[in-house]
Design brief:
Elements lengths: L1 E5 L3 H13 L3 E6 L7 H18 L3 E3 L4 H8 L10 H21 L3 E4 L9 H12 L13 H12 L28
Parallel strand pairs: 1-2, 1-4, 2-3
Length: 186
């Protein structure tokens, strides 16, 4: 099956792409994360997803960031706590873009690496994915069967950047408000 994998970041996508390949799927990574701010953070994460795609020799599609559109979609939820209403809107926004790309490019199914994180609700993501495309969404909890631990091991082995926040400016801890150093990708 040709599967489009929404890649929230390289670390989470690492275990997800590995598992999908082990299941016999043809995987294409889809880096679509309009929530990520600032621009330098988006660029850094995109570079590491490129590294991951090269390691697994899978295609990568990059959705150009449109942070202003994402901000309009989440307007009124800026003060919502982590795992609250803003996150649910953000998940729907990203999964809808993945669904649209799946349909446009003729993939058989789509899923998301967001379920690799212990901080993201797989049941919520499954409900959103099924609502968007019930018959074409693969409800896979990539943190199951030690998936999160595997993502940590793969991240270390591949030298993948592990971020300190989900990506949006509303989740960014005050201790990482400084600009990120430039990272050289070899």
């Amino acid at each position: 099956m040709r599967v489009l994998l929404h890649a929230c970041c390289a670390p989470c996508a690492s275990a997800a792409v590995e598992r999908l390949l082990d299941l016999g799927h043809a995987v294409t990574l889809f880096f679509s994360n309009h929530n990520i701010a600032p621009d330098g953070e988006h660029t850094l994460r995109a570079r590491h997803v490129e590294r991951l795609a090269a390691h697994f020799a899978v295609p990568l599609l990059v959705d150009p960031p449109e942070h202003a559109a994402w901000r309009r979609a989440t307007a009124g939820h800026e003060e919502a706590p982590e795992r609250g209403s803003r996150c649910a809107i953000c998940f729907r926004y990203s999964l809808a873009r993945a669904r649209d790309r799946m349909l446009r490019d003729g993939f058989d199914a789509f899923t998301t690496s967001l379920t690799t994180s212990p901080h993201k609700s797989a049941p919520l993501l499954f409900a959103i994915g099924r609502d968007l495309a019930a018959d074409r969404f693969l409800a896979l909890d990539f943190k199951a069967r030690d998936g999160f631990m595997r993502s940590c091991a793969l991240s270390r082995a591949l030298g993948l950047y592990r971020q300190m926040y989900c990506g949006c400016e509303f989740s960014r801890p005050s201790d990482c408000l400084r600009d990120r150093p430039t990272v050289t990708i070899s």
